[in-house]
Every structure is written in structure tokens, then in C-alpha cells.
Amino acid sequence: MSQEPAWEVVIGLEVHCQLRTKTKIFSGASTTYGAEPNTQADAVTLGLPGVLPVLNAEAVRMAVKFGLSVDAKIAERCVFARKHYFYPDLPKGYQISQYELPIVEHGHLDIELEGGVTKRIGITRAHLEEDAGKSLHENFSGQTGIDLNRAGTPLIEIVSEPDIRSAAEAVAYLKKLHQLVVYLDVCDGNMAEGSFRCDANVSVRRGPNAPFGTRTETKNINSFRYVEKAIEYEIERQIDVIEAGGKIIQETRLYNPDTGETRSMRTKENANDYRYFPDPDLLPVVLTQEDIAGIRATMPELPEAMRDRFVSQYGLSKYDAAVLTAERALADYYETVVKSSGADGKTCANWITTDLLGALNKIGKDISTSPISTDMLSGMLKRISDKTISGKIAKEVFEAMLAGEGDADTIIKAKGLVQITDESAIIAAIEDVMAKNPGQLADYRSGKDKLFGFFVGQAMKATQGKANPDALNRLLKEKLAG
């Protein structure tokens, strides 16, 4: 009896990425997060009679930037459409989006998997649209509150091809995409505030050559961990249903992080259910090649290019370069320290990746809220370079800076941490240690070379750790040799 092929998972992701414009996509209302409910819902947002939408040009430029970063085709003519559905937080009864003619099509993103394997994930399209409002269920007994501040906020919806084959691949794709939009400065990437959220389309089939199965869409997942758990649960659920003789229903589902499960919300709409048609109040957007070239000229250095440059320019390993370029703010911090301190690239990388990031992780801060500024770290590295302090003393200075005791020079002066470079003072300390340890001295001179470390430790203790290590080692060898 032939065995059935193993299950294959097919995943496509739709990512809603909130653009970093100051105002909404079709009006001048503010997009600032955290305002009192419904204080940023203007007449256009509410769809009051007689108002007309006016397109935010900056949102268009940001969408083009994204398209260029994923090697996509930028439409020279794109059209806004009305997507009709009823929901309490959609005041007009339709959402302005793009349907047949989106601004970005046919791009790709390369992700790195375990073992250094690279996989290309196709990007079907990225289209501009307005966000809906937010339904509030807390503090409303038996009722739902509606906050329309978010309605009209500009988004790009980034739709992948169904090229993803596991929850781990989905997370790798999302992290790469998140890194990219933050580098481009088109999105702040704040998942907790809903600036970057994901809908996961999941189906299963019997082997890679079988037709695609019926998919479900799990909506509005706002953390990488939840995306992974929601997909893993949905895969297991679908396989269990099919193996029990049931059928998968095309539907929209929600993920509950408390239970780790997805649940049915409503049957999944098809495109014709939305009754799309071109918005009569908005002209087509026409972009010339000159327009696109002008936007391309404003593009920042992208993560992969910066990583490769850090390897070649600063002599870093690929691993260190990848860590330092994982976030734009961290990469900028590193490069500022290298340029202002005069220290070599590897030394700066070690202090930042090991000491600084380790300390920030312990106190629950990130590089943007670091108590140690670039000027402070650069100042400390300069004092190591000019021999004012040793690397060992620098650790004490670093901890004091982290605790808010001031910059390196202030701490060095206050604590009396200036390194001893006067060779006569170091020799005096060495001779005192030798005189106090005649037995160890005799053993060393009889061939027990490992005792050298003992004498280094004792001499450092005698100088309170302030002796210049290079000078101490050189002079100690001379004195111990007799």
C-alpha cells in the first residue's frame, strides 16, 4: 500500500505598514499616536457630505521608496478604488485602497535561513490605502467603543507570493521586511502600536505538486512570536480537520495569545464581495521616470549594503557586521563612535556588541534610550588610546557611565583612575612584591614560568589596578630575570 505524500505548508503574508507621514493620506488631520479618542477624526475622515479627499504626496513617495528597495516595478499610473464593506470603525462604509492598478508590483525579498541558506520570497504587490478606525472592547460593559483617530492613516499593504513554507520562514521574512521599512524611514515599525501588523494566509496540501488547499486568513497579528505561534497552530488545526475527514472553510480567523489558538471570526470575503470600483473623487496617480529617479536619489543605504561595507571598511566579521546593522539606530551609533573616537573598528564593535548591548538588555533599554551616548563611549575609548586608563580600568569607567555618574573624564578624575605610566613607580611596586614573596620568586627562577601570572596579579594589586599593563609586563619580565 503506497504511503501518502507528506503535508506541505503554503503561507502568504499580507503586511500592513503604517507610513511615517505627519498627516493622513487624504486630509490634513494628524497621525500622532496616543491622542484622546476621536480628536483626530476630521470631516474627510468621517466622510461628511461635500468633502473631498486630497492625496498626501509624501505617502506616494514613501511607497515608491519601498518598491525600489525590493526591486519592484513602480507603476507610472496607479488608481485608487473604493472597497465596500460595513464595519462600525469604517465611517464612510468603504475604504479607499488600490485594486487593479497598485503602485508597486513584482518585487522580492531574500531571507536567510539556518545554515546560511538564502531563499527568495516574491512580493506580489504593495498598494496604498487608508487605515480604518479601532473598536474598543475594554471598559465598555456589553458595548463597543469606536475610536476614529486611526481612520485615514496612510498604509502600504505588502502582499507576498505564497512562497513561504514554514512558520520559521514567515518570521524570517517579517523580520527582514520590518528591518527594511525602518531603515527606509517610511515606518516606525512599532508593532505594539499597530504600525506594523500582519495577516497570515495558511493552507496545507499533500506534497509540492498537489493543488493549493483552501486557505484561512488570520488577521492583525502584531508580534513576531505571535505570528509564529498562530501559524503553527493553524497548520496543526488544518491537518487534524482534513485527516478526520473534514474540509477547511475559507474564512477569517483571529489569534488569541492567551490560549495560543486561532478562532473563526467570519467567512472570508472574495474580491467581488467588496464591489471595487475606481474612486470618482481621486484622479489617477501619474509618475514619470524623472519622478521615480528623483525618489531613488533620496534612498538611504540599505541593510545588506551597509553590512558588507562594515566588513570591508572596518574589518569586522560578517557576524559582528550583521549584529551592528540589525537596526538603523545601532548602525548609526556604531559608525558615529568609530569616526569620533579614532579607535579601530573591531575595538568599537567589541565594546558595543558585548558590553553596551549586554548592559542595555539587563536594564531593559534599547540603543535609542541608552544612558551612554556616542560622545560618552567615544570619550572613554580616547582615554584608552592615549593610555590615560587601561582596558581593565575602562570596565569600571563604563559601569559608572551606565549608572549615570557622568562622562569618562569626570569619572576618571572623581575616582582617581588615571593609569600609572611612570616606570619608576611601576618598578618600585614590582620590587616590593618580589621582596614580599621570596619563595615564589625562587620557584619562578628555577623554571616555574606559570608563576609569572601570580606576580602580575600582585603588582596590579599593589598599584590598585592602575599600572599600565604593557609596561608592567615588560618591566616585570626584566626584574624577574634577575
TrEMBL record:
Residues 332-480 form the Asn/Gln amidotransferase domain. One of its GO terms (biological process) is glutaminyl-tRNAGln biosynthesis via transamidation. GO terms for molecular function: asparaginyl-tRNA synthase (glutamine-hydrolyzing) activity; ATP binding; glutaminyl-tRNA synthase (glutamine-hydrolyzing) activity; transferase activity. SMART domains: GatB_Yqey. It is an enzyme of class 6 (ligase). Pfam families: GatB_N (PF02934), GatB_Yqey (PF02637). Its EC number is 6.3.5.-. InterPro entries: Asn/Gln-tRNA_amidoTrfase_suB/E (IPR017959), Asn/Gln-tRNA_Trfase_suB/E_cat (IPR006075), Asn/Gln_amidotransferase (IPR018027), Asn/Gln_tRNA_amidoTrase-B-like (IPR003789), GatB (IPR004413), GatB_C_1 (IPR042114), GatB_Yqey_C_2 (IPR023168), Gln-tRNA_amidoTrfase_suB_CS (IPR017958). It catalyses: L-glutamyl-tRNA(Gln) + L-glutamine + ATP + H2O = L-glutaminyl-tRNA(Gln) + L-glutamate + ADP + phosphate + H(+); L-aspartyl-tRNA(Asn) + L-glutamine + ATP + H2O = L-asparaginyl-tRNA(Asn) + L-glutamate + ADP + phosphate + 2 H(+). Keywords: ATP-binding, Ligase, Nucleotide-binding, Protein biosynthesis, Transferase. Heterotrimer of A, B and C subunits. Belongs to the GatB/GatE family. GatB subfamily. Allows the formation of correctly charged Asn-tRNA(Asn) or Gln-tRNA(Gln) through the transamidation of misacylated Asp-tRNA(Asn) or Glu-tRNA(Gln) in organisms which lack either or both of asparaginyl-tRNA or glutaminyl-tRNA synthetases. The reaction takes place in the presence of glutamine and ATP through an activated phospho-Asp-tRNA(Asn) or phospho-Glu-tRNA(Gln). This is Aspartyl/glutamyl-tRNA(Asn/Gln) amidotransferase subunit B. It comes from Stenotrophobium rhamnosiphilum.
